[in-house]
Design brief:
8-stranded mixed beta sheet, alpha/beta, oxidoreductase, Ubiquitin-like (UB roll), Sarcosine oxidase alpha subunit, 2Fe-2S_ferredoxin-like_sf, FAD/NAD(P)-binding domain, 438 residues, oxidoreductase activity, 2Fe-2S-bd_N, single chain, 3 domains
Length: 438
């Protein structure tokens, strides 16, 4: 068996500093210790990881924030794992699911070919005694995802605890409000479901994140001093009054805080066009996340900046252009403003048609990176009783000087604050003053 560390993965800019080997369906894959498993697989050109449940169309990572199903796989016998949320470890075994035959072929894909206009399996052989029941059983098996874990998990006790202040989200707004609360004498716990903290900053490659360096330093210093407790890979699942349901590696708990601050950021914009779920099509933010880790989303990517997008489109483009200079003619990037109309390909996108102000243009590409208007992640705030206002990009949380309800607050992109360092600082300082004033 060849040693994957003998060569650089085809989509990596540089070799890993701490290389390890994981496997995908038994095949060795080079990875950087601790990086998301999905990132290592993209770097190795293993892009087809999942299949759509019904038609078994190929799926690949598209968001790198656990908001899609393109990276679902079995990891060390645990099914349906979001591999973008799993840090790579030596010897980790990744197995693709929901397929019959090879990972990239999947013989069950024939369902899609036989029913090009869609299929309602409830109506197939309807009314024929016995046959319909057999079809229902077959459809349920075909549409299933991973098999149950090899072993049952040991039960873990739930618990209750009380804290001073909780911030949900460790992006720039979450970091800024945490720092301001610490300055006001509060003890703060910051929760985030990602592997590392930083939120949208982790999607800015190269010098694009320099404007946020002072904020990052202040936050990291507060964590090092113990003024802020940072918990990554921890999900805030629901809120009941001021009881926050939190699920992490330790299990489930109800956390009651004197003040809860939502800094949940926004969801990547998704555009409706033919082939938009094909492997190789992802958000520009996801591609920036990869690039900041030295991994290319494609060797000739097309960045499509749609209406309402472009907040960091130019920064992404500049980062890709720098990569082009570093790697020579093997890598090129095209940045275009417009609307994708159609993408084609099989297990990876091969071309895209874009409507631009100067007419329709077709691009040969191995990655389409969509930068569309981001939608505020308002869900937890709405559970807490927030009023939301609908805008073209989504639902924006309305607050009274940052306040949603008694002891519940919201900051940042959630309430419409631009992803810009001075605006984020001003919003955090203003909200922290209102929190301190009751």
């Amino acid at each position: 068996m060849p040693d994957p560390t003998d060569r650089k993965s085809p989509y990596r800019l540089t070799a890993p500093k701490n290389p390890i080997t994981i496997t995908l369906d038994g095949e060795p894959v080079l990875a950087e210790r601790g990086e998301p498993v999905a990132a290592a697989l993209v770097a190795a050109d293993k892009l087809t990881l999942a299949r759509s449940p019904k038609f078994h169309r190929p799926r690949g990572p598209s968001c790198f924030r656990a908001a899609c199903d393109g990276c679902l796989a079995r990891v060390n016998d645990d099914p349906n794992m979001m591999t973008c949320m799993v840090p790579a470890e030596e010897g980790m075994a990744v197995v693709t699911q929901n397929r019959l035959g090879p990972r990239e072929a999947d013989f069950l894909r024939m369902t899609d070919w036989f029913f090009p206009d869609g299929m309602n399996h409830h109506e197939i052989f309807a009314g024929i005694p016995g046959v319909q029941n057999v079809m229902q059983m077959f459809a349920r098996r075909v549409a299933g995802l991973g098999k149950l874990p090899a072993e049952a998990l040991a039960p873990r006790k739930a618990q209750r605890r009380e804290v001073d202040a909780v911030v949900v989200g460790s992006g720039p707004s979450g970091m800024a409000i945490a720092v301001e609360l610490v300055r006001a004498g509060r003890r703060v716990e910051v929760l985030d479901d990602q592997i590392v903290h930083g939120g949208g900053l982790e999607a800015l490659a190269g010098t694009a994140k320099n404007a946020f360096a002072a904020l990052r330093h202040s936050f990291d210093d507060a964590v090092a001093r113990g003024s802020v407790t940072l918990r990554t890979r921890t999900v805030a699942g629901a809120i009941y009054s001021r009881d926050l349901l939190v699920v992490g590696d330790e299990g489930a708990e109800l956390v009651r805080a004197r003040d809860v601050v939502f800094a949940c950021g926004g969801h990547d914009g998704v555009l409706a066009f033919e082939g938009n779920d094909m492997p190789g099509i992802m958000s520009a933010r996801a591609a920036g996340f990869l690039l900041s880790r030295g991994i290319l989303a494609g060797k000739n990517p097309v960045v499509v900046i749609a209406e309402g997008g472009g907040t960091f489109g130019e920064a992404y483009a500049a980062a890709f252009e720098r990569a082009t200079i570093e790697l020579g003619s093997d890598v090129s990037v095209e940045v275009v403003r417009g609307e994708p109309l159609r993408a084609r390909g099989q297990n990876r996108v091969k071309d895209v048609l874009v409507r631009t102000p100067n007419g329709d243009r077709e691009f040969i590409t191995d990655a389409v990176l969509v930068d569309a208007a981001r939608s505020p992640a308002y869900e937890l705030a709405a559970q807490a009783g927030a009023t939301v206002k609908h805008e073209p990009r989504g639902f924006v949380v309305q607050t009274d000087r940052g306040r949603i309800a008694e002891g519940v607050w919201a900051v940042g992109e959630l309430v419409g604050v631009p992803f810009e360092v001075s605006a984020i600082h001003a919003d955090a300082k203003r909200t922290a003053e209102h929190i301190a004033g009751g």
